[in-house]
Amino acid sequence: MKRRLFAVAGLLAAVTVLAACGGGEKGPSATLAAATPTSRPATPVPTTSVGTPTPGPRGTPAAPPAPEVKLPAGFAAFVVAENLSGPTSIAVEGKGKVYVSELGGVVWRLRDDNGDGVFEARDRFVEVAPSIDGIALVPDGSLYVSHTGRVTVASAASAGGAAASVREIVSGLPNGRHQNNGLAFGPDGKLYLTNGSTCNDCQESDPRSATILRLNPDGSNLEVFAHGLRNPYDLTFTPDGRLWATDNGADPPCATIDELNLIEEGKDYGWPYSPGCDALAKGVKPVANLGYFTSSDGLAYYDVDAFPAGYRGSFFVAQYGANSGDPNIGKRVVNVKVRDTAQGPQDEVTDFALGLDHPLDVAVDQDGSLLVADFGSGKIYRITYSGS
Length: 388
Ligand SMILES: [Ca+2]
Ligand SMILES: [Ca+2]
Ligand SMILES: [Ca+2]
Fold this sequence. Notes:
Layout: H1 2-15, E1 75-81, E2 87-94, E3 97-102, E4 106-111, E5 121-127, E6 132-137, E7 143-147, E8 150-154, E9 166-170, E10 180-185, E11 191-195, E12 211-215, E13 223-227, E14 232-237, E15 243-247, E16 257-263, E17 288-292, E18 296-302, E19 314-319, E20 332-341, E21 344-353, E22 359-364, E23 370-374, E24 379-385
Antiparallel strand pairs: 1-24, 2-3, 3-4, 4-5, 6-7, 7-8, 8-9, 10-11, 11-12, 12-13, 14-15, 15-16, 16-17, 18-19, 19-20, 20-21, 22-23, 23-24
């Protein structure tokens, strides 16, 4: 394990700070955690997602339970894939197939061919230039890959499991301390892409920095959809057509909270926050306060009923954690319930899965279980609910 982590660290050093961000960059030192995350598209966009989850069998995976993961009563976690080198993002295809990206540039297509809930096989689907921080599937089986400054499309897997062809549709996006991360298709058929700031706290010169971008699926007509987002990481549409995104708050000296935001066209989400360092002082206020230095990254909307009723219509957020190493910050998955009121969306954030080692993405699988990509351990966990 350590050896593999060192390998990842070496890779990250090579990729430099371009990868840094989402997360772990919150502390003062440029450690492995600092140079890591940045991630993920998610899930249930009914009109566009191949992997739109539907309720299904709720069997327990044929894997040993993972007691290190602490969950609410009735839930259990299982390791269903491992030995991944810094998994950053998950996209569910369905029928036992899941794509997982590694920071270094490889995307694997994990297969559960015997339907026991464990991915016992994997195909090397495609390799692109590092660092991958988001992937999204479209119904024809093509996979959109977000990696430093670029978006690459890999067409559906051939018989051997590899992508049949690869083409780059976007290049030259501004990047630096952060880069382009998660991506998702909207109900309008457009591609939405997060693009982080080039710095911790500065005035950007390129209007595409610190934004959510919108573009055509072929890469044309790229435009700024929303701005003032320091490092928007993952985003997802809910069935009502609204767009939501996580955003990583600033490091000291202008430390600000991580956020869940409701993203609307043309709106300013407030960053940079100095002078004053108040994330609530200007721009659209966040829907949820996800805490200081948590590196709130991967985002999934839970719209099925395999979990108890209270979870339907809520969000799960993977919190990578602080690069200060403080185990009490992040390193967990939180659940965010959002309720619409006359005063706007009101939130309730609660811990869901503790004991993780730098989780970066979450995705709802076809059977309603929750998959977690744990960057630090190189594992994919499946979280199920049995009620007992
Ligand atoms: Ca995601
Ligand atoms: Ca299996
Ligand atoms: Ca904000």
